[in-house]
C-alpha cells in the first residue's frame, strides 16, 4: 500500500471498513437525498452531463480499470470464497469479465460504460464539494551501505511492531486498530520519529538502504514510495510496508503558524526550500511529526503498488477513503486544477489506493506518476472538486452498508 502523509494537514483517525455491496434487486427504494443520518447520498447522474465528459479520453483509464478487474476476478476464482461473497460481487464480476476480454476504442468504451454502469454524484452533509490533492513517486539517491555521503537510514517494518485489532475485544470498535510495542507486560506506543532519529532502532533492525538527503527521506515518508538510484546507476524501488502508529502532524501547518511561509504559498516545494535554508532547525521541525513510515523493496519495474494491490497508473489512479469508496471502482473527478496540459482536471479515474489523510466521502489524492512534472503537480495540488462514482447497474450505492 502506498500511504502518503499530508503536507498541508490531512490523515488517520477512522477505521478502514470495506464496503459491503448490496444488489439493488430486493432492496426497498429510498430517497437518495435522505439516505441515512450520516448525511451521505449518491445522486444518480447522466454520464453525458458529467462536467468535461466529452473532453476526456476515457480510453486512457482502461488499463487502470483492467488491472483492478483482473485482481477482482482472480480473488473471485479462489475456492475459499463463500456464496455470500460471490453474490455480493456478482455485479462487478459481470462488468469486469467484459472489461478484461473486450477490445475497445474511445467510442465503444464510452458506450460500454453507459450501458453497464450508473454514475452517482457524491453528496455529503448537503455539499458536493471536497478537497483533492496529489502525490507522486519521487526519485532519490541512496546506497545499500552507509557512508559519510549516505547516512539517512530507511528501515523495514520492525519485528516488534505489534498490530492490535480492537474489534476482537469489542465488536462495536469494528476494524479499529492500534500499533505499539510490548514493554514488560504492557503495550506501549511505538517509537516516534524523534526516537528513531536519535537511534532507537539501531542494533534492533538493519536498514534496507541509506539515503543521501535527510529532507528527501522525510518526503519519501509522505509519498509512501520512491525510486532510489544507487551509486552504480541501478534503480532500487521501495514501497510502503507499515507505520509506527503515531498520529501524523503536518509541518506545513507549523511553518504557516510561525510565519515562516505564507499560507497562500505553502506547498511541498516551499517546505523543502525552507528546510534546506534552515539546516539548524530542520531536524527539530521534521521531528514535530511523530509518524514514521517503514518500507520494503518492490519487485518489478512497472511502478508503485497501491492499497488495492495493483500497480498505479499515472494520472488515472486515485487514492480514496475506502470507508466510502470501493477500491477498483471507476470515479469521475472534476477538480478546479490544471492537469499535465494546463486543462481543468476532469477525467475518468480508478480508486486504487488509500492514504492516512484521505478521509471523507469527497476526498481524493491523484497519483501523478514520477518525474519533474509529477513532482510539480503533486506539490502544488490542493483543489476543490466533486466526485462521481460508477457502479454496475445492478448495484445502488445508497443501499451499501458501511
Pick out its properties.
402 residues; alpha+beta; Barwin-like endoglucanases; Ribosomal Protein L25, Chain P; 2 domains; six-stranded mixed β-barrel; globular
How does this structure look, described?
It contains ten helices and 17 strands. The chain starts with 39 loop residues before the first strand and ends in a 10-residue tail after the last strand. The protein has two domains: 32-131 and 310-367 and 381-399, RlpA-like domain (Barwin-like endoglucanases), CATH 2.40.40.10; 135-297, Beta Barrel (Ribosomal Protein L25, Chain P). The model is unreliable at 5-37 (pLDDT under 50). Helix 8 packs across helix 9 (279-286). The protein has 402 residues and is α+β, with helices and mostly antiparallel strands. The strands form three sheets. A six-stranded mixed β-barrel has the order 3-16-13-15-14-17. A six-stranded mixed β-sheet has the order 5-9-4-10-11-12, covered by helices on one side.
Question: TL;DR?
Answer:
The protein has 402 residues and is of the alpha+beta class. It has helices at 62-76, 83-88, 90-101, 106-116, 193-197, 214-223, 251-257, 268-277, 279-286, 372-380; strands at 40-45, 117-124, 130-137, 139-143, 152-154, 162-165, 177-183, 186-189, 209-211, 225-229, 235-243, 293-297, 317-319, 330-338, 344-353, 363-370, 382-392.
Amino acid at each position: 500500500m502506498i500511504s502518503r502523509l499530508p503536507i498541508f494537514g490531512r490523515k488517520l483517525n477512522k477505521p478502514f471498513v470495506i464496503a459491503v455491496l448490496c444488489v439493488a434487486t430486493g432492496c426497498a427504494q429510498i430517497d437518495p437525498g435522505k439516505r441515512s443520518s450520516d448525511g451521505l447520498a449518491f445522486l444518480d447522474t447522466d454520464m453525458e452531463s458529467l462536467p468535461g465528459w466529452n473532453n476526456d479520453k476515457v480510453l486512457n483509464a482502461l488499463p487502470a480499470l483492467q488491472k483492478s478487474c483482473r485482481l477482482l476476478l482472480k480473488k473471485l476464482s479462489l475456492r475459499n470464497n463463500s456464496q455470500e461473497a460471490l453474490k455480493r460481487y456478482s455485479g462487478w464480476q459481470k462488468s469486469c469479465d467484459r472489461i478484461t476480454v473486450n477490445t475497445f476504442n474511445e467510442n465503444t468504451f464510452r458506450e460500454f460504460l453507459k450501458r453497464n454502469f450508473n454514475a452517482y454524484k457524491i453528496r455529503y452533509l448537503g455539499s458536493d464539494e471536497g478537497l483533492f490533492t496529489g502525490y507522486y513517486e519521487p526519485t532519490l539517491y541512496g546506497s545499500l551501505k552507509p557512508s559519510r555521503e549516505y547516512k539517512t537510514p530507511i528501515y523495514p517494518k520492525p519485528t516488534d511492531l505489534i498490530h492490535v485489532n480492537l474489534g476482537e475485544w469489542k465488536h462495536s470498535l469494528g476494524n479499529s486498530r492500534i500499533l505499539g510495542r510490548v514493554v514488560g507486560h504492557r503495550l506501549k506506543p511505538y517509537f516516534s520519529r524523534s526516537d528513531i532519529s536519535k537511534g532507537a532502532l539501531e542494533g534492533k533492525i538493519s536498514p534496507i538502504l541509506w539515503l543521501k538527503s535527510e529532507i528527501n527521506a522525510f518526503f519519501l515518508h509522505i509519498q509512501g514510495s520512491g525510486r532510489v538510484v544507487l551509486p552504480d546507476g541501478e534503480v532500487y524501488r521501495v514501497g510502503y510496508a507499515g507505520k509506527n502508529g503515531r498520529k501524523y502532524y503536518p509541518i506545513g501547518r507549523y511553518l504557516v503558524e510561525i510565519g515562516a511561509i505564507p499560507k497562500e504559498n505553502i506547498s511541498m516545494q516551499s517546505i523543502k526550500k525552507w528546510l534546506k535554508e534552515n539546516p539548524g532547525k530542520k531536524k527539530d521541525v521534521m521531528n514535530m511529526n511523530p509518524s514514521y513510515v517503514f518500507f520494503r523493496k518492490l519487485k518489478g519495474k512497472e511502478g508503485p503498488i497501491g492499497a488495492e494491490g495493483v500497480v498505479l497508473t499515472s494520472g488515472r489512479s486515485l487514492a480514496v477513503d475506502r470507508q466510502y469508496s470501493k477500491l477498483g471502482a471507476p470515479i469521475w473527478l472534476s477538480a478546479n486544477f490544471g492537469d499535465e496540459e494546463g486543462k481543468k482536471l476532469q477525467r475518468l479515474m480508478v480508486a486504487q489506493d488509500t492514504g492516512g489523510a484521505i478521509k471523507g466521502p469527497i476526498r481524493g489524492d491523484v497519483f501523478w506518476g514520477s518525474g519533474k512534472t509529477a513532482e510539480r503537480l503533486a506539490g502544488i495540488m490542493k483543489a476543490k472538486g466533486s466526485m462521481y462514482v460508477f457502479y454496475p447497474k445492478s448495484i445502488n450505492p445508497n443501499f451499501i452498508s458501511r
